[in-house]
Amino acid sequence: MSLRVDSLTVRFADALIVSGVSFDVGPHEWVSLIGPNGAGKSTVLRTVMGLHRHDGAILHAGVSVGDMSRRQLARRVAYVPQEPTRPPGVRVRDYVLLGRTPHLPPLGKESAADREIVAEVLAALDIESFARRDVSTLSGGEAQRAVIARALAQQPALLVMDEPTSALDLAAQLDVMETIDSLCRDHGVGILSTTHDLTLTARFVDVVHLIAQGRIVESGSPAEVLTADKIAAHYGAAVQVLTDPSGGLIIAPRRSPRRQP
What we know:
Elements (H helix, E strand, L loop, with lengths): L2 E10 L2 E11 L4 E5 L6 H8 L6 E6 L2 E2 L5 H7 E4 L11 H6 L14 H13 L15 H14 L4 E5 L7 H18 L2 E5 L3 H7 L2 E6 L2 E6 L1 H4 L2 H8 L3 E5 L5 E5 L8
Parallel strand pairs: 3-8, 3-9, 6-7, 7-8
Antiparallel strand pairs: 1-2, 1-4, 4-5, 9-10, 11-12
């Protein structure tokens, strides 16, 4: 098992943010947390990464996150935050190479093998054309690809991603989702993500957990969770759930009838 979360509870001061959340992520499995803004999704991800104090258990390959050093955790888990830092003066290739840091010995330098891994990641995400550019000059979509490339360079067993396609146009969204899907299916990487794009979730994800007010209120396959009734109940939004000719789900918002004068 890549990740096991059992009865996770997170408090900030006196506020209960996440309560009793439990789920697993296995190799070759893509799990997504969905839910309205403020539901606690990002808090769950950051806690899985050891960034918040918590009650309950978080086990990475059977080892508690509290018993792992930052280096040990980074060798197993890569994190793509919603708003990553883009330091000026750093070329994209060197930025991606930072993903190899957890695998280097103290005071060690990157090897030819490390540089080859980075070259493969740059090619996989089709960002070789701007590998020499300063990362701070990239567009939102280009920067997101660079951040994901840095995470993939870690060669993680688990990839944790907070809104990985939020800054991308439609074509780039599909390219990135297909790349993540290939990592999951072909290379055995477990994926844990959050997203607000329910149609993309339906197309790529294996298991969906709908979080509302810090609790998991629905779990199952996309077809089981992404129903018009459940979305209305927890998002407060009216939608149509359609099926395209290939069998994929489309989550389409419904407009309220206009008031008559």
